[in-house]
Amino acid sequence: MKSTESSNLQAGPAATGIDRLSALFERFRVRAHLFHAGPLCGVTRFAAEPGRGFLHVMREGEMVVTHRGRDGVPRRLEVREPSLLFYPRPLAHDFHNAPKDGAEFACATLDFEGGTEHPIARALPPVVLLPISRVGGLDHSLALLFAESTRLRCGQRLLVDRLFEVLLLQMLRWLLDHPAEGGLGLGLLAGLAHPRLARALVALHERPGEAWTLESMAACAGMSRSAFAAAFRAELDQTPADYLAQWRLALAGAALRRGEPLKTIAETLGYANASSLSRLFTQKLGRTPRDWRRAAADGGQNGSTSSSRA
Fold it and tell me: Rounded to 5, what percent of the chain is helix, strand, coil?
């Protein structure tokens, strides 16, 4: 059960005056790639691919969408109004009877750096379905997206890809401001939606190498140490120390993929030396940084620097 302080704050206005997303996307990028624009008909299948999500925009028409849930049982979604349909993690899905006349579709794949361990991909539900009418500020982005995707012009592909990335950010903004309506469970996005915890989380994301303590994190949130610890566990289902270690390991894994030396990574993340980081890496992930880097290079590691929830 969430603490009284946590619940009261959650019911209040969203955190203002801070950027809750930029530090995440600067360190773990997402690249969109348009692959379809125009009508659809019959049954259209979208296969699951490692590290890849999908963002579909249905501007007109109706259809049925099916996919399998985590328990393997088929799920059915009826889309009866213009909507955004977002699969943040690999999940095969089908469109049934998508209208071929008068329907405007645009579909993009989303390649998440770190694959399913991208912090945002991990924090979201398996599928997010949002009616366009509920997400304010999309009109201009959608108008430009469909204008560009329907005729060939110089730079069209690059512009449309960037517009899908803009739509993703606009959708995430809305989810952070409306966590209950967006169906967010416990985890990072729930923490970022909390008006006080968000300040501490953004500070951790922006300054991971700082000598953080529970007191200094609580001070960022403007809370007492005990209230902060209780609210953090209630929203993210883990302690602040565990989250900080997970975030640092995620950054270390990304740096290893880029080929950075372990000593430099350790210094950047605030560890006394490379041995300290190596011990933590082995303790949490069950392999040394060298073995992890080798597996990543061989394609056997998809940036798994933390255990994701089922």
Answer: 45, 15, 40
Q: Which CATH number do you get for residue 56?
A: 2.60.120
Comparing CA positions, the residue from 154, 44, 161, 48 lying closest to residue 108 is 161
Q: What is the Cα–Cα distance from 273 to 3, expressed in whole angstroms? A: 38
**What are the pLDDT digits (tens) for 63-91?**
899 999 888 889 999 998 999 999 999 99
What domain range includes position 173? 20-177
Q: List, for residues 145-185, the tens digit of each pLDDT value.
A: 988 887 778 888 899 999 999 999 999 999 998 887 877 88
Q: Is residue 13 part of a domain?
A: no
CB 73 within 8 A of CB 66: no
Q: What angle do CA 189, 114, 218 make, to 5 degrees?
A: 35
- Single pTM value for the model: 0.83
Range with lowest mean pLDDT among 180-184, 236-240, 265-269: 180-184
Closest of 207, 216, 199, 205 to residue 268, by C-alpha: 207
Rounded distance, CA 260 to CA 292, Å? Answer: 13
Type of residue numbered 213? T
Residues 6+ apart with CB under 8 A from 290: none
In a domain, 308, yes or no: no
- Residue 121 DSSP symbol: H
Max intra-chain CA distance, the chain: 63
